[in-house]
């Protein structure tokens, strides 16, 4: 029997309607379109304005988009993984709620949190379950309502992040398509540079933590930038080398959308032509767990069966890595 690999067989996505442009941000904090564009590549982001809706809403809409496009019967889904850094609630799994709402009534489900690397790590997890032979349909959702943890008076962070969700279905493949190799890394040295200090077990919420804005994202941008540039480029280059892939062999770079300059640096190290570098950061900003599936959904029609995709991500923790996947279908 040939080896089972895990292939992506369908994708879907959702972004909220409200568009927060650089021009609007200029009226909120001391910043300007030129600074944001040249430093990050971002022009606008989507924001989920409805205060009664959490990350699950983004995940449900993305999964429903996938289900409608692919025709997959949700009751046949074995497992739902929800990659997110902004669960609806603490303790109660967001994945379980999403699975029930989309009709994945026979699935088991759980959340996976690795900051901006959540979806990348989730790809590894989904693939391992498929490759084990035990499960046939694993739905991986990446969604984040970043606006729920951003301080819109802090110009260092509020210009970067946006809300969104995306989904990918993993199924067994016997033609050798799907996930080929992965190189995943982490280093706890990063925990002080990108984090939310309050609300966890180290600093439970109090009136004081709220008053001192300890429940918002804090980022030492310069340090994160430095680590992100070198680490994302290192792992991407390494995964190419150990799979004997030249820049001609790589069809697409699917990189976490945190900053255009970080993506460009990774592409340069891989000696990739710009035309192979997928980019939608200008429209969505950094949607954390949703960046990779939003790229897959936006560029799905350009992918051909057999294309070599290199995924790369970097995030809080620090967490980072690269995955080599062969695309399995023509849209
Ligand atoms: C956040 C980031 C865009 C800032 O860019 P930078 O070139 O490092 O800018 P700095 O933080 O050094 O700030 C440079 C100057 O611009 C100012 N500045 C910061 N934010 C600004 C804004 N939104 N508008 C205008 N000026 C701003 C700073 O105050 C600083 O001024 P100073 O020199 O007078 O002190 C960049 O560090 C970055 O992208 N970091 C990584 C982010 C990331 O990838 N995070 C997620 C990982 S998953």
Walk me through the structure.
It comes from Leeuwenhoekiella marinoflava. This is Beta-ketoacyl-[acyl-carrier-protein] synthase III. By secondary structure, this protein is of the alpha/beta class. It has two domains: 5-176, 3-Layer(aba) Sandwich (Peroxisomal Thiolase, Chain A, domain 1); 179-326, Peroxisomal Thiolase, Chain A, domain 1. The protein is 32% helix and 24% strand. The chain is built from eleven helices and 13 strands. The strands form four sheets. Strands 1-7-6-4-5 form a five-stranded mixed β-sheet, with helices on both faces. Strands 8-13-12-11 form a four-stranded mixed β-sheet, sandwiched between helices. Strand 4 (79-83), helix 4 and strand 5 (108-112) form a beta-alpha-beta unit. Helix 3 (55-70) runs parallel beside helix 4 and helix 8 (221-242) packs parallel to helix 9 (260-269). The longest helix has 22 residues, at 221-242. It is globular. It binds coenzyme A. Residues 31, 35, 39-40, 116, 155-156, 159, 219, 221-222, 224-225, 228, 258-259, 262, 286, 314-315 line the site of coenzyme A (COA).
């Amino acid at each position: 029997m040939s080896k089972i690999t895990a292939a992506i067989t369908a994708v879907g996505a959702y972004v909220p309607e409200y568009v927060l442009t650089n021009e609007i941000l200029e009226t909120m904090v001391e910043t300007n379109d030129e600074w944001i564009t040249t430093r990050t590549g971002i022009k606008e982001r989507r924001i989920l304005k409805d205060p009664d809706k959490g990350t699950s809403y983004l995940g449900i809409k993305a999964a429903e988009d996938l289900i409608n496009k692919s025709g997959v019967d949700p009751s046949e889904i074995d497992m739902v993984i929800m990659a997110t850094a902004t669960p609806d609630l603490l303790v109660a799994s967001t994945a379980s709620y999403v699975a029930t709402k989309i009709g994945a009534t026979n699935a088991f489900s759980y959340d996976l949190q690795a900051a901006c690397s959540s979806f990348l790590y989730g790809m590894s997890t989904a693939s391992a379950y498929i490759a084990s032979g035990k499960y046939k349909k694993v739905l991986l959702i990446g969604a984040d309502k970043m606006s729920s943890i951003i301080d819109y008076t802090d110009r260092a962070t509020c210009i970067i992040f946006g809300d969104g969700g995306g989904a990918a279905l993993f199924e067994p493949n016997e033609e050798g398509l799907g996930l080929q190799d992965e190189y995943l890394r982490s280093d706890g040295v990063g925990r002080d540079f990108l984090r939310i200090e309050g609300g966890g077990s180290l600093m439970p919420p109090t009136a004081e933590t709220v008053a001192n804005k300890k429940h918002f994202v804090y980022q030492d941008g310069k340090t994160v930038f430095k680590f992100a540039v070198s680490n994302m480029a290192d792992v991407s280059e390494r995964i190419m080398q150990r799979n004997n892939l030249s820049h001609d062999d790589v069809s697409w770079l699917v990189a976490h959308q945190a900053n255009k300059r970080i993506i460009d640096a990774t592409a340069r190290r891989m000696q990739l032509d710009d035309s192979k570098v997928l980019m939608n950061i200008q429209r969505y900003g950094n949607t954390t767990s949703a960046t990779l599936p939003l790229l897959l959904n936006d560029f799905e029609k350009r992918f051909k069966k057999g294309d070599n995709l290199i995924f790369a991500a970097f995030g809080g923790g620090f967490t980072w890595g690269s995955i080599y996947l062969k695309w399995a279908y023509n849209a």
